[in-house]
Specification:
Largest sheet: 7 strands, mixed
Distance between the termini: 29 Å
Shape: elongated
Number of helices: 12
CATH topology of the largest domain: Rossmann fold
């Protein structure tokens, strides 16, 4: 997770503090590159007429709190927050510095905003009902699946909605749902191993800071136990997961740059609505299917936006 503060034209500073985590995270690099490219196209160049400071917490709550406090103390013109970990802390610390957020699901029910119409500006990831869509796609890819283990985080409000949506459609798909709460860093490897000891299982990983930070281990466990799995973000599939269904994360950062531009040019943050994704992408990793011995129905990959061979 990256938190960024920007200073307006006329107050440029040359230094650029980047947290080491951002430099070592390929997804973070891609989003940051799109953000900077979009800002430059709008007339803002880091080190010339704007200063950008970075903080990277990797989903760690304590690091996010420290980063939020640092940025608020520096009194930037605007703060950009990625994900739900740092957002409540930044909102608690300031009511005067404009905040633009990205990669947040269900911001109203999560208590981050009161309305989607004029809340202050941000970009959300998923609608609550997408949990049923994830389960349906997994069943299409693995028709013999009769059981699914769902990794969720109980203190992430959207995760509860995703889980309820999956449980609602499960009977019509003839699938039994087993939910495992990873809140507090619960050891999920044992839960997956126990679940996989019986046949016809599948894995659904809900999006939250903990599952994103531990995606490598989860992808490896799915392969080891031959579990077809569905994830929320493309980079899970690109890193070896079976399939993903979700919005383009990089595109949200291009949108965030446009909001930064509008705020720095004087527009009131309250005039900027929450934007929902206009398109979701289905990505299928056929190499991952071979690893777990899954024969995907031939028609299913034809629906994909991207097939990794």
């Amino acid at each position: 997770m990256a938190t960024r503060g920007a200073r307006a034209a006329g107050r440029p500073r040359s230094t650029d503090r980047r947290a080491d985590g951002l430099l070592s995270d390929r997804e973070g690099q891609a989003r940051n590159a799109a953000f900077l490219e979009s800002l430059q196209r709008l007339g803002w160049t880091d080190g010339r007429n704007v200063r950008i400071e970075y903080r990277w917490s990797a989903g760690d709550t304590d690091r996010a709190k420290a980063a939020a406090a640092e940025l608020v103390r520096s009194t930037p013109d605007v703060i950009v927050v990625a994900g739900p970990t740092a957002l409540p802390e930044v909102q608690r610390l300031t009511s005067t510095i404009p905040i633009v957020f990205t990669q947040v699901s269900d911001p109203v029910d999560s208590g981050f905003v009161t309305s989607l119409a004029r809340p202050g500006g941000g970009f959300q990831n998923f609608e609550p009902t997408v949990g049923g869509k994830w389960l349906g796609l997994l069943k299409e890819a693995a028709p013999n699946m009769r059981r699914v283990i769902v990794l969720f985080q109980s203190d992430a409000v959207p995760n509860l909605a995703f889980l309820r949506a999956a449980e609602t459609v499960a009977p019509s798909l003839e699938v039994q749902v087993t939910a495992v709460d990873v809140h507090g860093g619960v050891e999920f490897g044992g839960a997956i191993a126990t679940f996989a000891s019986e046949p016809d299982g599948g894995l659904m990983v809900l999006p939250n800071p903990y599952t994103v930070a531990n995606r490598g281990a989860m992808i490896l466990l799915a392969a080891r136990h031959r579990l077809p799995a569905v994830y929320a973000f493309r980079y899970f599939a690109a890193e070896g997961g079976l399939m993903s269904y979700g919005p383009d994360q990089v595109e949200q950062w291009r949108g965030a740059a446009t909001y930064i531009d509008r705020i720095l040019r004087g527009e009131k943050p309250g005039n900027l609505p929450i934007q929902a994704p206009t398109r979701y992408e289905l990505v299928i990793n056929m190499k991952a299917a071979k690893v777990i011995g899954l024969t995907i129905p031939p028609a299913f990959p034809l629906r994909a936006d991207e097939v990794i061979e």
